[in-house]
Amino acid sequence: MAEEFAAQKAKASAWFRTLRDDIVAAFEALEDSHRGDTPTGRFEVTETARHSDDGSDAGGGLMSVMRGGRVFEKVGVNISTVYGQLGDAAQRAMAARGVPGMADDPRFWASGISLVAHMQNPHAPAVHMNTRMFWTPHAWWFGGGSDLNPCIEYAEDTAHFHAAQKAHLDPHGLDHYPKLKAWADEYFYIPHRNRARGVGGIFMDDYCTGDWEADFTVTQDIGRAFLPAYVPLVEKRRDTPWNDADKDIQLIHRGLYAEYNLVYDRGTKFGLTTGHDANAVLMSLPPLAKWV
Hints:
Oligomer: single chain
Order of helices and strands: HEEEHEEEHHEEEHHHH
Strand order of the largest sheet: 1-2-3-4-5-6-9
Strand content: 25-35%
Helix content: 40-55%
Structural class: alpha+beta
Number of strands: 9
Mean pLDDT: 91
Distance between the termini: 51 Å
Largest sheet: 7 strands, antiparallel
Radius of gyration: 19 Å
């Protein structure tokens, strides 16, 4: 598991950038097509950098955040490619997950895309998506998925979101969608609230069949499923009339989202413990939330 993975790393990192560009363009198009008196939202793009303890380069990425748009109250689409050596706590976490040899050679490389959207209209669902590749000298794997987080649920929206995921996964085997759906139901659960964060989606982690190209294609199709799964829901709900009671429901639901990301989310924990830009890691948090 040495540097013969250089080509695969470059290919994965380039894909995450392409997916990011496609999503940013689609979201700005939603802003442009929405009627309103306020200015259309645009992404502010900031380069992020990470450094090792000795000050040497350890990677970075792009943080793209839109705030106060016509459709999106806050949405971030981040990409990063980071590398270096894992600290003691991260080494122990990897070893606990079954990654061999971390104490002898704790090098790592990781690249991915992470997206969270919080909407102006409470009837338009919030959403999360991420896909990533992780490499050590001893193992590699892919992870990620997408899940829908409406504060006001519509059964037909949930059905559409899941159908799009299934359509993109079925070509890889009919067992993929039910397995990844069940994985998402388990992963995006909030134990201290005894409830799911949203209405589910798909999720995988430590995904490695031994065939890198096949696994990368699955990961790509998880990313490709996102826009057709989500954009039609925004187009359908962004003009729905709403009132203060609806907004209150939305703010309370956002509290659930914040609790999950700060307490349980594996990506948040990894980003903060490995020294990545905190603003980029915490981009997922809603602009406003409420607890009662």
